[in-house]
User: Fold this.
Amino acid sequence: PHIAAIHGVEDSDGVRGLVLELVEGETLADRLARPAGPTRGLRLPEALGYARQIADALEAAHEKGITHRDLKPANITITADGVVKLLDFGIAKVVTGDGPGPDLTHAETATMSATQAGLIVGTAGYMSPEQARGKPVDKRTDIWAFGCVLYEMLTGRTAFRGDTLSDTIAAI
Assistant:
């Protein structure tokens, strides 16, 4: 539920691509950029409705052993009917069990190339401390990011920010 569907995998000249569901609507990032009234962020019932759908999507992915690793408002689309769809599993990781997955510094991602040793993947303001350090991650990194997204929905500002990428990671 609440995850954009993959309709097929195509191969063209040695390049593999996914055929994805077209999800029309606005991203949560776009929705957060619009004023909600006299306060920042979304109204509580709206934020909680979206949060429940995001949590359902993450639960479904985690039950299949998939960690998103880049949950952020720009990867969440809201349809005209208020239905949330989680998108962009481009750096997702398949993890087995409840403990940490393979060490991220030596892991291949779902992108077109392998993760280089020491490379940090994801979006800084939503990374868990382990992910920001390039350490092994599991579903708990998505739960951390979910908390960051929920905080932003309620307050209208990111949980962790800095003037530079390094400052943001240090804030985490």
Notes: Residues 41 and 153 are 5 Å apart (CA to CA). The helical segments are 28-33, 44-63, 129-132, 139-155, 165-171.
